Structures are given as C-alpha cells and as structure tokens.
Amino acid sequence: DFLFFWGAVFLITTTLVALLKKENKELTPTKEETKGITDTYRLLFSIIKMPAVLTFCLLILTAKVGFSAADAVTGLKLVEEGVPKEHLALLAVPMVPLQIILPLIISKYTAGPQPLNTFYKAMPFRLLLGLEFAFLVWWTPKVKHEGGFPVYYYAVVLLSYALHQITLYSMYVAIMAFNAKVSDPLIGGTYMTLLNTVSNLGGNWPSTVALWLVDPLTVKECAGAQEHTCGTTLAAEV
C-alpha cells in the first residue's frame, strides 16, 4: 500500500510537470549541449579521458571500501541475533528529521572553494563507526533476555545510527557539492550525471562484494557433532 501510494503520487506529479511546466525559450544556451545519443556518449568518453577525472573516479570508486561491510551487513546481523525487524524499522523514523536537517547544516561547510575537505574529515569518523558497529553486533547477543532487548540497547543503536547518518551525509553532500562545482556549465547535465553515476557505483559495488563475502568469511562451529565442520551451507544445515 505504501509503495502503491507513493507510486501514484510520483505518476501524478511528473505528469502535471510535463503538462503544466513550460520551457523558457528566451534563455537558450549559446551552444547546444549535445545533438543526440551518439554525441552524448562521445562527450562522456572525452570527459572520462581527462587525467583529473580519471584520478577522481579511481578515488571515488574505492573510497567506500573501508566501511562497506559495516553499512551493508550490520542491520542483517542484528536481525540474525534476534533484534525484531519492526523495531529496527521504527528506529528509522527519528532519522527522518535528521536526514532533512543535516544537508542544510553541512551545505554551509561545502559551499566554499574546497568542498572535498568535509569528505576527507568525515571519513576517519565513519571508519571508526564501522568498528563501533562490529562491537554492536558482538554485544547484541550478550544483552538479549527472554523479553527481548532492554531500552538502553535500543538507545545505543539509535545513537550509533544517528552518528553514522552525520558522517554519511557529510561525505554525500561534499561529493555532490564537488561534482556541481567542477562540472562545466555548458555540459553540466552530462558532466554531473557521469560523476554522480560513478559516485553511486563506488557505494554499491563494495556493499555487493561485502554481502557476497559474509558467508565464506563467517566462522561456524558444530555443537554436539564432533569430527564435523560447518564450513559450507550444506554442512551447516546437516
């Protein structure tokens, strides 16, 4: 129902924009950005060949490797340890105001000539939070009791998530500000799309690899079955 409602809202609003919004034809650019799909891809390849863009792409594609496991796996491990999914979902509600306010605050620090400074400053804190998330996963089964989890446990999880959101948005807003700053205004749309796509890819592939590595890297012990290992999924089921 939730997805259906917002799907309908998106369809209605985008249709209204298409029907009611008129282009301002007086302010035409002095030069056309591109003439078609082929020209767009030619332009993209010419941008990618630039040494500075190549260096930046390499940076942004590997920058999130250090905290990909903590970001992708922590929530799943907490559920595996018995934390109800509904409770974790409820903890996301207080994050919404924080997610709205954070970009407004952070944008003041990324509006200057060096927006990536905020990105660099936030990175060590986000890496430290990865260690804190690992501790949280280790701590979870130790505080569990018959009735579930104590209130102070959820308070710690909420605080951890809030601090994580601050570092996450600091890096996200900084990258967006940098991409906007370096993009050539004449081909701004194409330039921004390329850099943002690389930025998104830099966040997605490490998380995918981290999730794929969870099972082979998890150490399992067999209880009550000597001379048997639980290294594989089949053996663990047996």
Describe this structure in words.
α4 crosses α9 (188-217) and α8 runs antiparallel to α9. The chain has one domain: Growth Hormone, Chain: A. It is 73% helix and 0% strand. It starts with a helix and ends with a helix. The protein has helices at 2-20, 37-48, 51-62, 68-80, 85-91, 95-110, 116-143, 151-182, 188-217, 233-237. The chain is globular and about 80 Å long. It is mainly α. This is ACATN protein.
Indicate the topology.
Elements: H1 2-20, H2 37-48, H3 51-62, H4 68-80, H5 85-91, H6 95-110, H7 116-143, H8 151-182, H9 188-217, H10 233-237
Helix pairs in contact: 3-9, 4-7, 4-9, 6-8, 7-8, 8-9
Keywords: Membrane, Transmembrane, Transmembrane helix
InterPro entries: AcetylCoA_trans_1-like, AmpG_permease/AT-1, MFS_trans_sf
Protein name: ACATN protein
Whole-number count of domains = 1
Task: Give the DSSP E fraction (strand runs of 2 or more residues).
Answer: under 5%
Rg calc: 23 Å
- Structural class from helices and strands? mainly alpha
Provide a count of the helices: 10
Shape: globular
Low-confidence stretches: none
Largest sheet: none
* CATH architecture assignment name: Up-down Bundle
